[in-house]
Amino acid sequence: MTREFSAGNYRFIPSVFQYSAGAAADDGYEIERVRFDRLVPLAEGFARAAKFIQDTGRPLTAFCACELRSPAAFSEEGFRAFNLHYVKTLSEWGIFDGTTNPVARSNVCPEIDPPSEPSFYAFSFTRPTGSKTPTFVIAGGAEAREGSGSYVERTVRYRDLSPEGLREKVRFTTSQMETRLTAFGFGWKDTTGVQAYSVHDFHHALADELVRRGALRSGLTWHFARPPVVDLEYEMDCRRVMREVVI
Description:
Blueprint: E1 3-5, E2 10-12, E3 22-25, E4 29-41, H1 42-55, E5 63-69, H2 76-92, E6 104-110, E7 119-128, E8 136-142, H3 151-154, H4 163-184, E9 193-197, H5 203-211, E10 221-223, E11 225-226, E12 235-240, E13 243-246
Parallel strand pairs: 4-13, 5-6, 9-10
Antiparallel strand pairs: 1-2, 2-3, 3-8, 4-7, 5-7, 6-11, 8-12, 9-12
Helix pairs in contact: 4-5
């Protein structure tokens, strides 16, 4: 279920053209996460990420994950248009080959005080290390099943905001994270950070669908934000990263 991206010294879980489902550093390398102190517009964020990566002596192909913020949830057509624009830079960096994209990604929409344009929140890249500790980033996933068909057809409990509807959305998304972790040979016990994105109260699902499954061994960072497509209500991502900085 994983493929190697040797130019970046990481392997990834193939998914769709706009992103992979996760990236894990090769032996002898680790993933470093870099968070911006303020949201940075997309073009500026790519430029600052490029400088940061190159200043460490790494090639741009080391870029392996990013976390974005958008002004509002997209329609399906709008989301595709944004993604076609987003991957242009990855093509220029020698990462996206026109078909396969190894870069993991989360892209969510703050409900309050959103950015005026798509912006960077954080990015990750690989760098050499003497440590044997594995590192990885699992891409954001919401309550939409993978495969063909529209989001309406693939969304778990579509437009159902009842307590049980939200519980099932959380349950599905947690399971999706577990599937991706398993593809790399990891589990919740290996994570150092878990993030959730929703504007709805999912506290009633927290104990059974997250805590008892081991997902919150390092706590939970809850962002009051929506997933990137209209009518998706809950998203998660997770990671194991030993080195994180804020710039």
